[in-house]
Amino acid sequence: MGATPKPARPRGRHFFANPGPTNIPDSVLLATAHHTVDFNDPSFAEVYWGCVEGLKRVLRTTQHVFLYTGSGHAAWEASLVNLLSPGDAILILESGHFSQSWGRMAQEFGLELRTVPADWRRGVEMEAVRAALAADTAHAIKAVGVVHNETSTGLTTPVAAVRAALDATGHPALLLADTISSLGSLDFRMDEWGVDAAVGGSQKGLMLPTGLSFTGVSEKAMRAHAESRLPKHYFRWSAMLQRPLKSFLGTVPTSLFYGLQESLRLIEEEGLDKVLARHSRLAGAVRAAVQRWSGNDGPQLFCLDPSRYSDSVTAVLMPEGGDADALRRVALQRFNLSLGGGLGPLGGRVFRIGHLGDLNEPMILGTLATVELAMRVSGVPHRAGGVEAALDALAA
């Protein structure tokens, strides 16, 4: 007997509302379909250095940028091994699944992991951060790691406030910030906020395929790099500086740079401030819809602190006993809408709506209407009218 055929996916355009990877503009897709070039050719070097300068403008830094072939996890690893030595302590501010992952990576490199615990629905308290730093009178903590935008919880952590806590306590630790799901979507200011290592990736706000990551690095961090003793080879910044492009100890993914060139052009054509304002406006519409749905004991915003709301992803907590993954299956299999799932302990309890990168009002409204439709046919309790609430938010 033959295998049971898989059900056909619904006709029409696939709506992709995951928080990463994200939708890729057609012009960026076309740009990445570039014929192979020699990465040592001067004509490619012109493209490459233009992209580096463009990344610096988005990071808002004038300092170093090192690039790697790999996802954001590669940039996490590069930052740890280039800055720290065995036995060093790193303080991770808890925000959700990805802050925990960064901490586990640090432990696997033989670093001492310290954390500032937090309620995932509210985020870390700055008083607790200051207390942890003030208590470290021997300055054993060599770095503080903060996930600027925690994709798993739809929660942000104010990086500038973490720098203020370091300065107020006179603590010399390096400040490391994960900008993977915030760069190009939320306001981020590497130099102004005193960030020493800013970790980024290609597949979210930069609207590229997965596979390119980078770290913005301060002069203070470069001095720490000179003393670091964790093993490294491919990620060694000092070795990269000896290469013509000042990054990559192996083959350069040239096609991604043609895509990045176009992505940066789109961002600068719109204007970075307007890009951020668009993300804020669309995120507000999503939250308005979820707040409407929360009536009748329906789904609710996972993040409970309005000052910490993310403008790139909204995590939605299902009603007690609800199955987020079952709802996601209905949305995908019946209506061709892909939503993000819950991560770690939030698996099955949360679904996530990504609203970052290449998107506009029709895409958001179509997503919200389909989520509400999926809830209706799945029997998920909610108050109807989420799309109307989103329309009101956008019209205002």
Automatic annotation (TrEMBL):
User: Gene3D superfamilies from the xrefs?
Assistant: Aspartate Aminotransferase, domain 1, Type I PLP-dependent aspartate aminotransferase-like (Major domain)
| Residues annotated for substrate binding in this entry | R352
> Which molecular function terms from Gene Ontology are attached?
alanine-glyoxylate transaminase activity; L-serine-pyruvate transaminase activity
Q: Which residues carry this modification: N6-(pyridoxal phosphate)lysine?
A: K204
* The protein's required cofactors: pyridoxal 5'-phosphate
Domain Aminotransferase class V, chain residue ranges per copy: 29-292
Q: Which GO terms describe its biological process?
A: glycine biosynthetic process, by transamination of glyoxylate
Which UniProt key words apply to this protein?
Answer: Aminotransferase, Pyridoxal phosphate, Transferase
InterPro entries noted in UniProt: Aminotrans_V_dom, PyrdxlP-dep_Trfase, PyrdxlP-dep_Trfase_major, PyrdxlP-dep_Trfase_small, SP_NH2Trfase/AEP_transaminase
Which protein family is it in? Answer: Belongs to the class-V pyridoxal-phosphate-dependent aminotransferase family.
Q: What name goes with this protein? A: Serine--glyoxylate aminotransferase
